[in-house]
Amino acid sequence: MRSMSRDHAHVQEFFGARAADWDSRFPDDGPAYAAAVAELGLREGDRVLDAGCGTGRALPPLRAAVGPPGLVLGADVTPGMLQAAARAGRDREGRLLLTDVAALPLRSRSLDAVFAAGLIAHLPDPAGNLRELARVVRPGGVLALFHPIGRRALATRQGRRVTPDDLRAEPNLRPLLAGAGWRMASYVDEDDRFLALAVRGA
Ligand SMILES: C[S@@+](CC[C@H](N)C(=O)[O-])C[C@H]1O[C@@H](n2cnc3c(N)ncnc32)[C@H](O)[C@@H]1O
């Protein structure tokens, strides 16, 4: 395991405390994850990373999309989340990596796609971390930034308001992605889903 910084300590504490009942808090999200994964356009044999995979809720649809010859990786910095993923048997769908997405133990251009659900708001250096995700994806490969509810609904659930400086707001996200090597191809922010798709530049 690589050494973890104080940034990680906060994330690990927050999500570690929520890992055991993460899936039972959101029992009906499965179809939304499957629909978002479908938008990646994966093919049999593709190589895909679930960045910030948590309990691995996206791993079954990712495995279904790439089939037995494909490569499915789930990376997360919180040990308790990966332990919950393994307890749920999701380590059979993909290989679990305890690692920070800021420094992935993967070769450059080795993947076809990255799926990241609920991750980006928790990153201490979104621009740098999105650049690291771009590093490991081949040109033309795809990134999905997903959340099973939209920004406004999430803010309401968390007892706050959406502010203009929210980095997932389209006017902020598009240049953030562009600066990190991604071209935003589509953007949806509705009550029942947030999904931004981006393509890795050459
Ligand atoms: C909101 S949860 C989402 C989990 C999962 N993707 C899902 O949709 O159920 C965010 C996850 O990102 C992980 N995470 C946050 N920062 C990370 C980082 N720098 N590297 C890897 N994982 C990170 C957390 O540990 C947590 O499991």
Brief synopsis:
This protein has 202 residues and is α/β, with parallel strands linked by helices.
What does this 3D model show about the protein?
α3 (30-38) runs parallel beside α4 (59-66). The protein has one domain: Vaccinia Virus protein VP39 (Rossmann fold, 3-Layer(aba) Sandwich), CATH 3.40.50. With 202 residues, it is α/β, with parallel strands linked by helices. It is built from eight helices and seven strands, in the order αααβαβαββαβααββ. β2, α5 and β3 form a beta-alpha-beta unit. A seven-stranded mixed beta sheet has the order 3-2-1-4-5-7-6, sandwiched between helices. The structure holds S-adenosylmethionine. S-adenosylmethionine (SAM) binds next to α1 and β2.
SSE blueprint and pairings:
Layout: H1 6-16, H2 22-25, H3 30-38, E1 47-51, H4 59-66, E2 71-76, H5 79-87, E3 95-98, E4 111-117, H6 126-135, E5 137-147, H7 151-157, H8 170-179, E6 182-190, E7 193-200
Parallel strand pairs: 1-2, 1-4, 2-3, 4-5
Antiparallel strand pairs: 5-7, 6-7
Bound molecules: S-adenosylmethionine (SAM).
